[in-house]
Specification:
This protein is mainly β. The protein has 2 domains: 138 residues, Jelly Rolls, CATH 2.60.120; 100 residues, no CATH class. It contains 3 helices and 15 strands. The chain has a 6-stranded antiparallel beta sheet. Strands 1, 9, 12, 13 and 15 form a 5-stranded antiparallel beta sheet that branches. The radius of gyration is 22 Å and the shape is elongated. The two termini are 22 Å apart.
Length: 253
């Protein structure tokens, strides 16, 4: 075959990832601990028949308005679990430290009714992997249940300050960080678009928006993977304790 003319046929695919904070909360909130369960000497937490595995990404949350945070583990902080045994865990500041068994120091304070929720804070791998050489043409998401977050205090002004960003090839390249309580929020129930496949049509007033120009604006939002890439959701400011979101990625490969 001539090297001048080569044809390759691509298949269009749509992949879906679901993050269900409410379902995780329903499980994890049953495994509370108090100051008496934190060993400052051993830097461990006793939680009977806990559900965690080494490497789980967790963040502290309180079960009710009567709860009190520990000094460490601290609210609004991501930790990785180190399983000691079925009733005991320790925490690490990175996944590498968790795998190496390197504990972070714990300070019980006056902790009451604290639990560790998985995937509530930090960079969360969705498990949705886009293969090398794929062309990503659209990403959209469907908020099934409106997201809710909590910052360690209760009452008006203290909830829903968390932000959510989506990344594939670089930080925030799918969805820039948006706060749950932002006006006209894109994290309420319903379907919403992202930066991919959604160009800002009126960005340049000099445009006359002929067909080829509009097509170019759309194409400029597309991505091409140079290696396999995982879609990542990043929670910042406060942990997300409730909500459910489906994320769809359309690509050709």
């Amino acid at each position: 075959m001539s090297t001048l003319r080569q044809v390759k046929y691509y298949d269009k695919k749509v992949a879906k990832a679901t993050i269900d904070w409410s379902a995780t909360r329903a499980i994890d909130s049953a495994f509370t601990f108090d100051a008496a369960n934190i060993s400052e000497a051993l830097d461990t937490i006793t939680i009977s028949s806990h559900p965690y595995t080494t490497g789980d990404l967790v963040s502290p949350v309180l079960t009710a308005a009567t709860g009190v945070t520990a000094t460490a583990p601290a609210i609004g902080t991501a930790y990785y679990v180190i399983v000691i045994d079925k009733d005991t865990i320790a925490l690490a500041t990175s996944l590498a430290n968790a795998k190496a068994g390197t504990k972070t120091a714990l300070t019980a304070g006056a902790a009451v009714d604290v639990y560790l929720q998985r995937g509530a804070f930090g960079a969360i791998g969705t498990g949705l992997i886009i293969p090398k050489g794929a062309i990503v043409t659209n990403v959209w998401y469907d908020v099934i249940t409106t997201l809710k977050s909590w910052d360690g205090a209760w009452g008006a002004g203290n909830e829903d300050k968390a932000t959510l960003a989506l990344s594939l090839l670089a930080a925030n390249d799918v969805l820039s960080a948006v706060a749950i309580d932002a006006a006209g929020t894109m994290l309420d129930a319903g379907r919403h678009g992202t930066l991919i496949g959604m160009p800002q049509i009126d960005a340049d007033p000099a445009h006359d928006f002929i067909q080829t120009e509009v097509a170019a604006l759309f194409a400029a939002t597309f991505m091409k993977t140079t290696s396999a890439a995982e879609l990542t959701a990043t929670i910042a400011v406060d942990p997300v304790s409730q909500g459910k979101i489906d994320i769809y990625v359309e690509y050709y490969v």
